[in-house]
């Protein structure tokens, strides 16, 4: 046992160290970190180390107890990854997003499923793990091409400064629908595949029923209980308090144990618990970020590295199959989501951007493929094809969004000159500040009677997603009927207010943006311009030290002059 523990610790250190190193290298090259983490498993696994130094590979990653211990670690890692994904899901956002999200997500689910299902029936027997169960294989491929990768999508939107925009919320909310339905479908499918003999209608109904009951218990019973527990445990002075993190871990493990007992994979239980906890307004954004950083830094690199350890990627790589899977995945997801968004009245350019944003598969696709291979649903060749597809689609999304949504340089100084500037306002909370800014803005527009309605719209929009972006900056905004053009207001606060920023910082620089309905281009233009300005420390310092309105405008005017060729869509630093 002593030797087994020693080997386990060495193998764990080798996996974590190489995965983190190559993951960081992948990020520097503009690729998702998961690509480098997978490559680390290829390098120290059977593909490279197993060929170059087979004895070293056999000692570091042997069969037996060390493999079981490592498998237990990766199981916990997978569950925590699904918890983090579940925490990204805000059910209130989904409920309020309306027809655009419903139609977009439906088309982004239906078209990929049927194209994937059809592809599964056309593939030769050699591409299937069990040709006798072609129907289940085809169903899995349809589900695999339907899901998106919430963590990758959220990170891409954050890096491009689109997370707090309406386009960003449409993409994120649509991905929520697709992922929840996709994971339910996979859970039912994996239960059927584990059963022997033909799949009967009664077994299918039982699987769907058990899964639905668990989801209902999680969202209707566990969710309010977790909300009350968070109210007791959350410490105002400690945004990432250990009691809250412990509660999340305990519920995730119990949820995973419950679904495992029902014959559904444990990761689904963790996913549902993540949704139940993440839907609470009492869960701080900084707590989410802390858990996300811990999981993605310590657990998930080991999982993605370990998936390639005992698989020969070179031998399993089939160019024909890879091209088929990548092509069908991209055409189905981008086309389905773009057509769905366009039918709701969104312009083709923005609709195409939504399609590319939803096309990211990333870690969720790889996780789904890994679980499917372990369950015997797919073989190694299809697994490799799905991994390549996940990496390719994740790499395409960011550049495509930049190209499609690149706005013109924003007229922030002009808008602010015609708007309102409030310096060192003596307000006690963000609701009071928004009311004050709305009143000042509508007074400048000669519409004082509308100030209360506008403030309510901004506050409702704030409930959908906190607009704190980090570094003491917040961008509350809303669409207002009757506006002919955008309006902008600025407030500087002496002590700062809580806008639920990912880095936990209280906002001292607050920009209120009001736009006409469905003017997504204008909203993106202004918010990305603000992001570009406010990520620069000298600009923030200048605004904090400005003695009067004229100095504020002068600071903005000097800074709002991007050099020729500079990128307009710049990252927002938000603790990422």
Question: What labels would you give this structure?
Answer:
single chain, 576 residues, mainly alpha, Na+/H+ antiporter like fold, Mannitol-specific EII, Chain A, 2 domains, six-stranded mixed beta sheet, 6 strands, 68% helix, 6% strand, globular, disordered C terminus
Description:
It is a single chain. 68% of the residues lie in helices and 6% in strands. Strands 1, 2, 3, 4, 5 and 6 form a 6-stranded mixed sheet that branches. It contains 25 helices and 6 strands. The protein has helices at residues 2-28, 33-44, 49-52, 54-60, 65-87, 91-97, 99-122, 134-146, 150-159, 166-194, 201-233, 242-261, 266-278, 285-306, 313-316, 319-343, 348-358, 362-374, 380-405, 412-418, 430-444, 451-464, 520-534, 537-545, 549-559; strands at residues 420-423, 468-470, 473-474, 477-479, 487-497, 507-515. Helix 5 (65-87) packs parallel to helix 13 (266-278), helix 7 packs antiparallel against helix 16 (319-343) and helix 10 packs across helix 11 (201-233). The chain is mainly α and 576 residues long. The protein starts with a helix and ends in a 17-residue tail after the last helix. A hairpin with a 2-residue loop joins strand 2 (468-470) and strand 3. The chain is globular. It has 2 domains: 78-297 and 316-405, Na+/H+ antiporter like fold (Up-down Bundle); 412-559, Mannitol-specific EII, Chain A, CATH 3.40.930.
* Assembly of the depicted chains: single chain
Number of discrete helical segments:
25
Q: How many strands in all?
A: 6
Task: Report the CATH architecture of the largest domain.
Answer: Up-down Bundle
First-to-last CA distance: 40 Å
**What is the CATH level 1 assignment of the largest domain?**
Mainly Alpha
Structural class assignment: mainly alpha
Q: Which fold does the CATH topology of the largest domain refer to?
A: Na+/H+ antiporter like fold
Q: pLDDT below 50 for ≥5 consecutive residues: which ranges?
A: 562-576
| Binned strand content | 5-15%
**How many domains, in number, for the residues?**
2
Largest sheet: 6 strands, mixed
């Amino acid at each position: 046992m002593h030797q087994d523990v020693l080997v386990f610790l060495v193998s764990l250190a080798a996996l974590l160290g190489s995965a983190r190193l190559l993951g960081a290298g992948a990020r520097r090259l503009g690729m998702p970190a998961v690509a480098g983490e997978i490559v680390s498993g290829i390098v120290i696994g059977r593909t490279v180390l197993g060929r170059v130094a087979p004895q070293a590979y056999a000692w570091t990653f042997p069969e037996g107890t060390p493999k079981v211990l490592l498998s237990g670690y990766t199981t916990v890692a997978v569950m925590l990854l699904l918890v983090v994904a579940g925490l990204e899901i805000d059910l209130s956002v989904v409920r309020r997003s309306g027809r655009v999200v419903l139609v977009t997500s439906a088309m982004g689910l239906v078209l990929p499923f049927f194209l994937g299902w059809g592809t599964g029936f056309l593939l030769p027997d050699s591409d299937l793990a069990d040709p006798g169960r072609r129907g289940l294989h085809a169903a899995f491929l349809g589900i695999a091409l339907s899901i998106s990768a919430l963590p990758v999508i959220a990170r891409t939107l954050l890096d491009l400064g689109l997370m707090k925009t309406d386009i960003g919320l449409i993409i994120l909310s649509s991905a929520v629908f697709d992922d929840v339905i996709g994971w339910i479908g996979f859970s039912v499918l994996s239960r059927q595949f584990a059963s022997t003999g033909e799949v009967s209608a009664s077994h299918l109904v039982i699987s769907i029923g058990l899964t639905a009951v668990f989801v209902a218990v999680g969202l209707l019973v566990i969710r309010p209980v977790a909300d009350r527990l968070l109210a007791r445990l959350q410490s105002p002075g400690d945004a990432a308090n250990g009691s809250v993190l412990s509660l999340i871990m305990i519920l995730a493990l119990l949820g995973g144990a419950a679904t495992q007992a029902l014959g559904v994979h444990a990761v689904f239980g963790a996913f549902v618990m993540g949704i139940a906890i993440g839907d609470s307004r009492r869960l701080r954004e900084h707590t989410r970020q802390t858990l996300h950083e811990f999981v993605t830094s310590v657990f998930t690199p080991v999982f993605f590295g370990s998936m390639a350890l005992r698989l020969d990627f070179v031998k399993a790589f089939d160019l024909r199959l890879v091209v088929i899977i990548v092509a069908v995945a991209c055409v189905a997801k981008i086309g389905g989501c773009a057509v769905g968004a366009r039918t709701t009245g969104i312009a083709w350019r923005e609709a195409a951007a939504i399609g590319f944003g939803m096309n990211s598969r990333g870690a969720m696709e790889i996780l789904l493929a890994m679980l499917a291979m372990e369950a015997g649903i797919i073989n190694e060749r299809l697994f490799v094809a799905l991994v390549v597809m996940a990496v390719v689609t994740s790499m395409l999304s960011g550049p495509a969004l930049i190209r499609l949504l690149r706005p013109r340089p924003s007229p922030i100084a002009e808008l602010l000159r015609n708007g309102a500037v409030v310096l060192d306002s003596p307000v006690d909370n963000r609701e009071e500040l928004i009311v004050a800014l709305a009143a000042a803005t509508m007074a400048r527009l000669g519409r004082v009677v509308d100030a209360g309605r506008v403030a309510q719209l901004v506050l409702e929009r704030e409930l959908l997603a906190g607009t704190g972006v980090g570094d003491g900056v917040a961008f509350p905004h809303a669409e207002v009927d009757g506006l002919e053009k955008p309006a902008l207001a600025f407030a500087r606060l002496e002590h700062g207010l809580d806008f639920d920023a990912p880095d936990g910082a209280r906002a001292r620089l607050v920009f209120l943006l009001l736009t006409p309905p469905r003017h997504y281009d204008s909203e993106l233009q202004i918010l990305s311009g603000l992001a570009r300005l406010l990520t620069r420390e000298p600009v923030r310092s200048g605004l904090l030290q400005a003695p009067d309105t004229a100095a504020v405008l002068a600071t903005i005017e000097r800074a709002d002059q991007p050099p020729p060729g500079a990128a307009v869509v710049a990252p927002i630093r938000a603790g990422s």
